[in-house]
TrEMBL record:
Its main location: membrane. NCBIfam families: ATPase-IB1_Cu, ATPase-IB_hvy, ATPase_P-type. This is Heavy metal translocating P-type ATPase. Keywords: ATP-binding, Cell membrane, Membrane, Metal-binding, Nucleotide-binding, Translocase, Transmembrane, Transmembrane helix. It comes from Chromobacterium amazonense. The chain crosses the membrane at residues 155-175, 187-205, 217-240, 246-265, 402-422, 428-457, 734-751, 757-777.
Amino acid sequence: MTQSLTLPVSGMSCAACAARIEKQLNRLPGVDAAVSFASESAQLRYDPAQANPQQLVDAIERCGFAVPRQSMRLGIAGMSCAACAARLEKVLGKLPGVSASVSFAGESAQLAWLPGLTDQDAVLAAVRRAGFEPLLSETEDNAADASAARYRRELAWFAASAALTLPFLIEMIAMFAGSHHGWLPRLWQLALATPVQFVIGWRFYRGAWLALRGSVANMDVLVALGTSMAWLLSAAVTLLNLPEQHVYFEASAMVITLVLLGKLLEARAKGKASAAIAALMKLAPKTARVEQGGELIDVPVDRLKHGDIVVVRHGDSLPVDGEVVSGEAWLDESMLTGESRPVAKRAGDKVYAATRNQDGMLKVRAQSVGSETQLAEIVRMVAAAQGSKAPIQRLADRLSSVFVPAVSAVALLTFLLTGWLLGSWSTALIHAVAVLVIACPCALGLATPTAIMVGVGNGARRGILFRNAEALERAGKVDVLLVDKTGTLTEGRPVLRHALALSGDEDALIQLAASAEAGSEHPLARALLQKAQERGLPLLACADFRAEVGRGVAARVEGRGLARIGTPAWLDMAMPAEARAWQDAGATVVAVSLDDRALGWLALADTLRASSAEALRQARSLGVRVMMLTGDDAATARSIAAEAGVEEWRAGMRPQDKAAVVRELQAAGRKVAMLGDGVNDAPALAAADVSLAMGSGSDVAISAADITLMRGDLRHAVDAIRLSRRTLAKIRQNLAFAFVYNVLGIPLAALGLLSPVIAGAAMAASSVSVVSNSLLLRRWR
């Protein structure tokens, strides 16, 4: 029986593309395909016995086209440890066309699926079948409120458990003080321990049942099994009135209370770890002042529309991305660029949501509102990166999947051997309970994701955006940094560096050249106009402007004559030695004439960013080899390399040549990062192990590179490497601590050197210690 499926297809440029895809699909056995260029879709009928949807998608993508996925970030409630996240990820991965990454630390799932194969309702149903609660309302806007609500619930459960457990603690203190007879009757102990075990501790039974139903074992299994064994033994001794036997109600109650304490502290620490998103969202205002009919009206931000005129007064934060239509102001854009200095804005300039007006007033025409703003895109990117998994986490995931069954086997072996050797099955039971309790794998599951969350969040606060956790990890292994010249090492725009006026009057030479160039959009023309403006030189009236590509421009200057500015060869002017020296140093030299009479020469060149030389020195201090790649000529490359302190450089590089250099270094076993502007460097960025895109908040393509540097400062590339290495160091510390804790703790518990109560306290402390160690990353600068 055939099945039908409609898949969207993007990237088709003409009907021939659709025909090519259709031909490829119809080659598959049991497939009948019709691809439409107009609707950008493929109508498919296939025999499930001969083909499956993934094969159809692969066939389309082999043709060089994309099948767009739908994606979403979903909050997940009810996970108790990393095994829960692994189980849910496995369940979601079984849905047709779905890929999922579930984060226990972030209590969220990053999902992508193929439309037509599944939908959002199917995803939500799968989450619920797995025993968890999907939180659709937990978007970036209210994640902090949801986290605070969960913390309050954990606090309430812990307070109730602690109140019922307190009498046991008092009795234990009395016994340590020398009292040989407990003051708390056993029936009272039963009455206090039972609600702790079965009401407050119900979550562990539910979690254990759902985990076992899904053919996995998690922390809930260990806690439920261990505490139930202690409670059942104690209840039997009490109800059968066996005074010679010990009871262990305090063990079951205090273990549950301590586990809840660990969860409470965990929730608080994880809230701090994910605070970066909440901090970003707080930057955006909730209301905006909109000009309507000559009046100012306060409008909720979520009701703003494209084209609305928003008034931003002194001290206000911008609610939208847009263009200034009138007014002047100084804006603090540090949240986007990392640059602390305010930026002047006037009519025609682009402005961005959440930047703050420090002085002045603006009227802004809204161009991007709500979820379309650059701030919203940054928040989505940070959330996705925090929820993604680094390759280093795979080891912990594999261990977590077998850890609980292995510990259960050790606990059973401890029970049997201790009972046989000591002849006391009640003592054996307590030893087994201690093994089960201390081995809870929370610390192991939190070791990697908490460090990733803090590292990614810290980078975001400083204008370094990691696309995912894998990019964060790879950046720390980089040992070669390839740097594009124009717009990366340099400012990317030429400036007038030298002027040689035959009359001796530089200002007159610059004024004439700038006036003639006023009609040109060439970068050299803009440099001359900027210099004239800096010197306060008024432009002269010109007419009959014409430009000759590759040569220069000519214009008739009122009252002066025909001015020409261009290459010395076009003007037939021989360069003096001083001008030749400027050219040899990498500058572009233009000649200026008036009515074919030589007036002088101007040298224009790109300027090195103020931070570039220092950034490259810092990179070398980290053991990173630096090489400059540029399409410019050798003279220009040599000049910039000498100024920046770059020892290795290659000039005359086409985009494909830069990519070839990347592959050459990779073949030699090097880990290569490419830093460029994301346009002409695209082939090299795609080939590199790590791609970094330079930019400012106004033009950066946030999702184009592995790492986006919001501020146009090369030092942030070095900071990204430093932050990555520091984060990886924290992950290794956390994993080592979790492993050592279990390697030491389980044998001690098996030998009876740790009581269940101490084991429970140690288990809670281990999780909190791992998260606290990750939070130390917040101090990174």
